[in-house]
Design goal:
Number of strands: 7
Low-confidence stretches: none
Order of helices and strands: HHHHEEEHHHHHHHHHEEEEHHHHHHH
Structural class: alpha+beta
Shape: globular
Largest sheet: 7 strands, antiparallel
Mean pLDDT: 88
């Protein structure tokens, strides 16, 4: 069992580290996007007003589209997102929720890049499906590693209170690995299992395909508790769209009838501008743990409610939506979100300590020079991934601030900066993977993180005290997070330097 735990963790450890690290960052995906888009905190207008602004923009810019999407902000990223569906795909736009005009900030990929890296590994159309399969395989192996880890480390309660940082290197890394694993074990189980559930149709579609021979639309309808509303008989004729503001207000009132405060999350408009128009409204994720769709469907020309999905989902759908909601944690308020973030960091560090422990445990007595090729490869990948990936995120943030605001392809250059920094650390690890290589990599990563808040203030001209007075939590949150990362990486480099001077192994 120990053998299975060790090698299951090593084979996919670097991918798991990337998945956990980017997934943990995504608990603050809206805040990261707001920071990269340089959005200032505002008091959002009411949703009916935003709906009318979105409809007006879509009517002017995409009257011939076959469908529209309108996504309302939950308050964390003050922006109104719209998209128009055409035969060649969706065209998306971010609107100012106060004016309905396109957002004025610089082009950027925002926090969405880390989100897609988390569950597709690479952000390109051709690689996303392959990336999802790889992520699923990693999650399954993670489940194996968790279960075998619990069996191997029988003294769970004792491990939760044992950490000897000044002990020999192998003992210290093992204590840290056990402590991080035990302290957030329920989170690791939940996040691994719920992650598999979110993409279960990709990994195991056969049961659903057998149960719904007519297509997965029937499965989706049962899952959401509402059947797709059929179009009226006869050919569609041009017709004005009903007042979206009134429909949004009616939906919110219907969901909040039992005392809850449920806002609209998304409006889908099928065949706008025709007599066949249908409006499907779903609630805001942030207002509910279970992420129950409870969709409401309205006639697009009269605003009449024609289908009600409230209370229609069964127990299986409730379990699915609860696990989905737990994985994304959009329901969590700020304190609980930080708790999720801390648990995610613990999981990331647990994977990292396990990878380092594998190397330290097998280090020859003759020192780093006596390592075999396989051992050197593991050490190089450890530096390139465990230090290189956090540094790559800092590189992306720096690119967001340092690239000219009007440069063409800016949203592509930011991910390019991420991959270039990561590649640089991989090459550095391949060049020097001993203690000196670790120290240099950690110092370089610390400098990158320290440079982010400096570049932020210099480029944007933000006054930190003014931001504090204005209650700009996004500005200060990113500033402090970057400084904490810089200090943590720098402190690790100092610890390695001290151990190296004492003649001990890192």
């Amino acid at each position: 069992m120990s053998w299975l735990h060790t090698w299951a963790g090593l084979v996919v450890g670097w991918l798991l580290f990337a998945i956990f690290l980017t997934g943990t960052a995504c608990y603050f995906r809206p805040e990261i996007s707001a920071w990269m888009h340089r959005l200032a905190p505002i008091a959002l207008p009411d949703q009916p007003s935003q709906a009318r602004l979105a409809a007006a923009w879509l009517q002017a810019e995409a009257p011939d589209a076959v469908s529209w999407l309108i996504d309302f902000s939950d308050g964390r990223e003050p922006v109104l997102k719209v998209a128009a569906g055409r035969p060649h795909g969706y065209v998306a736009q971010r609107l100012d929720p106060m004016t309905g005009a396109p957002e004025a900030g610089p082009e950027t990929v925002g926090g969405d890049f880390l989100f897609y890296v988390h569950f597709t590994l690479i952000m390109s159309d051709w690689g996303r499906i392959l990336g999802r399969y790889l992520v699923g395989i990693c999650a399954m192996i993670m489940g194996v590693a968790i279960v075998t880890g619990v069996i191997v480390h029988k003294r769970i309660f004792k491990d939760a209170f044992t950490f000897r940082p000044r002990a020999a290197a192998q003992r210290a890394w093992l204590d840290g690995h056990n402590l991080l694993g035990v302290m957030s074990l329920p989170f690791h189980l939940m996040i691994t299992w719920s992650g598999l559930i979110t993409l279960m149709l990709l990994y195991m579609p056969w049961a659903v395909d057998a149960g719904y021979p007519g297509g997965r639309a029937g499965y989706a309808a049962d899952l959401d508790g509402i059947a797709a509303a059929g179009a009226p008989a006869g050919p569609a004729q041009p017709a004005a769209l009903t007042d979206l503001g009134q429909v949004v207000a009616a939906a919110s009132a219907a969901w909040s009838a039992d005392g809850r405060d449920i806002r609209v999350g998304r409006v889908e408009v099928d065949r706008p501008g025709t007599t066949a128009a249908r409006l499907t409204l779903t609630p805001q994720d942030a207002d509910q743990l279970a992420r129950l769709p409870e969709a409401l469907v309205f006639d697009g020309t009269t605003g009449r409610l024609i289908a009600d999905g409230r209370g229609q989902g069964g127990a299986a759908a409730a379990v699915h939506h609860t696990l989905y909601g737990l994985h994304l944690a959009r329901f969590a308020g700020l304190p609980l979100r930080w708790l999720f973030f801390a648990a995610g960091l613990a999981g990331t560090a647990m994977i990292a300590t396990g990878l380092v422990l594998w190397s330290v445990k097998r280090r020859p007595k003759t020192g780093a020079a006596g390592r075999g090729r396989g051992h050197r490869l593991v050490d190089a990948l450890n530096i390139g991934c465990l230090v290189g990936l956090p540094a790559a995120i800092a590189g992306q943030f720096l690119a967001n601030r340092l690239l000219p605001a009007d440069i063409a392809g800016r949203a592509v250059l930011e991910p390019a900066a991420f991959y270039l920094v990561w590649l640089a650390f991989l090459l550095a690890g391949a060049w020097r993977s001993d203690g000196s290589g670790w120290m240099r990599a950690l110092l370089a990563a610390a400098l990158l993180w320290a440079a982010v808040p400096v570049a932020d203030v210099l480029v944007t001209g933000r006054d930190p005290l003014g931001a504090l007075a204005a209650g700009d939590r996004v500005f200060w949150g990113l500033q402090l997070a970057c400084l904490v990362m810089a200090l943590a990486l720098g402190r690790l480099a100092m610890i390695l330097r001290a151990r190296s001077r004492r003649g001990g192994a890192a």
